[in-house]
Amino acid sequence: MAKFSKSSSPRNFAERQTINMLKLIKVISVGTDRNYGEALIQLARYANEDLHCSLKDVTKEQAIQYITDRSTTVGQSTLNKDHDAIQKMFRALNRSDYKIPKIKTELTEHLSSRAYTSRQIEFITQHQQERNALATQIAADGGLRAHELLTLRRIEERQTDKRDKYPEAQQLKFFGRDGIRYTVQGKGGLIREVMISKSLSERLEATRRLFPVKIVDRKINYQSYYNIGGGKNFSNSFSKASNKALHWSRGAHGVRHSYAQSRMQCLITKVEYQTALQIVSQELGHFRPDITLVYLR
Fold it and tell me: Could you tell me if 180 and 263 are in contact, meaning their C-beta atoms sit under 8 angstroms apart?
């Protein structure tokens, strides 16, 4: 566990860990050294304060979750610098097998998108083909990203990634809901549990393929077990249908905002606000609850 001295601020403590790490990385460019340094200081503070470990003890899964959460608050350039610095750190620590995937920023989407009402979502589905309409309803009901629709699996078919933080929130996940649990593979390959209503689950299972189909979406390969929309094609369908139905579009990502706001409204009548925020963050696949605040605007 990382420990702060009384005379050291969290920033200074993180800086010392970063300096030691940069010596191992052996950066030869001043500019690169500066970029890696700032990126690793941010990661070190996160490790010290949130994970209660030192920079060198950060695991691959924790690093991926860190970058995934960062993707909602920083641009692509900063996200790429974070990725490169962390990858160099793992190599310096002789963990070359720790491959950190590139993550796409959601910053622009979050700044421009807002939640859809359930009525608006209903109007949108009326302008979509059946497989995309069902995908829209599932995404809204489970808080799924567009590409996660391609990764839906039954709960018994694979394990979710373990999360040690906020155990109370994990125990209360999907509190107040009644549905069928599935798993999806989110950003960075992290697998989490989601819940879909029984009626939607029945419709989803009716589309189940005898054998999974390989689908390439944005240059990433997926094994799709259900014949529903997903990925870029689904996002395009949603935006087109939204423009037809409402004469404007906030993008398919807006249904995740809808899910977050709906869940918060339900949960704050049953549990404390901070606990509710932690629960929703777990359901959306965020590690830090403050990231979820972006969805509650």
Answer: no
